[in-house]
Amino acid sequence: MQPIIKIEKLSKSFGDIKAVNKISFDVAKAQMFGLVGPDGAGKSTIIRILTGLLSYDNGSIKILDMDLKKNKKKIQDNIGYLSQKFSLYGDLTIDENIEFFAKIHGVSNYEGRRNELLKFTRLTEFRDRLADNLSGGMKQKLALVCSLIHKPKILYLDEPTTGVDPVSRRDFWKILANLLKDGVTIFMSTPYLDEAERCNKVALINKGKIISIDSPEKIKESTNKTALEIVCNDVKNAASIIKNNTELEIQLFGDRMDIISNNYKDDYIQIEKILSDNSIEIISHRNKTLSLENVFILKVKNENVEA
After folding, report:
1. Residue 32 pairs with which residues in a beta bridge?
2. Distance CA 253, CA 187 (A)
3. Average pLDDT for 256-283
4. Which of 5-9, 147-151, 159-163, 218-222 ranks highest by mean pLDDT?
5. d(CA 134, CA 141)
6. Which of 213, 254, 260, 279 could potentially form a cystine with 249 if both were Cys, beta carbons 3.0 to 4.6 Å apart?
7. pTM of the entire structure?
């Protein structure tokens, strides 16, 4: 099946900074594709390029089987875009904002579609409220409705849940799941690796380069390692001691540490002895599958060592 988005050797620089460095990937129809990485990794630059808002230096981009440079307007008529920053009109109501965007996209008889989307996002009872008076989560829902009013085939979301409360984040993900069922392709960026687990396909990106791309499960399996999670008293000191006495990779997460392991049983015996010799008590431990966060940290570190 022909991919709905196909990128080959895409590059973009800002002066001496390579924001996007020869990346290639494709996205299938009705897939949720996640672009995951820290601030400054190049995520927003890639999305702005794909929406036709930013030019690129080298490479090729085909969207909906059309060349982006040759068919930009036609492609833009078939995509929706939700940017990081709330960009709607605060002095207009929910209804008025949707009407404005419907007219921009040339959508006539939009009222039925508007009612459908308001019900879909549970905003119907707030339709007369000014956008400035909405909560962060409701603003994101309104922005999503405005980006869907013209029935786009592809929806681009640039860190859509940043700054949104947990309940609204959950609601937002339910909405996205329903959009996938309707055949909409979702291309999103996020700094949250737990959110990326929900995607069908994920590209881990750092400093403009893709360091891994596949389904979340296959990316996690690719290391052939597990994480030994240890909770103990004085976890920072414990991590320092283990680091000074072993070659193991250690990742700190609050009151616990994950130790990337090739052999859980042997590594635990070694660690238990080291900590016991230093009067540090292990409160609990378990062996677990690596998370995307574990893998990302590991791959970035390995890339830096190779560089």
Report:
1. 186
2. 29
3. 95
4. 5-9
5. 10
6. 260
7. 0.86
